[in-house]
Amino acid sequence: MNPVARLRQSSRVPLLQVVKTAVAVIAAWGVATATVGTEYPIFAAIAALLVVQPSINQSFVKGLERSAGVVLGVLLATAVHLVLGGSTWIVLLVIVLAILLAWALRLTPTSSTQIPISAMLVLSTGATTPHYAVDRIIETVIGAVIALAVNALVVPPVALQPAHLAVSRLARDTAAAFERIAVGLTKGADTAEWQDALETARALRRAQAVSDAAIGAARESLTMNPRGGRHRTILERDVVVAAHLSVIVTRVIGMTRAIRDNATPDLVEDRTIGRIATEVARIAVDVRTLATEVEVSAIRPESQGDEPALTTPIVVIQPNEHHWILIGALLEDIRRVREELLGEGA
Question: What pTM does this model have?
Answer without folding.
Answer: 0.60
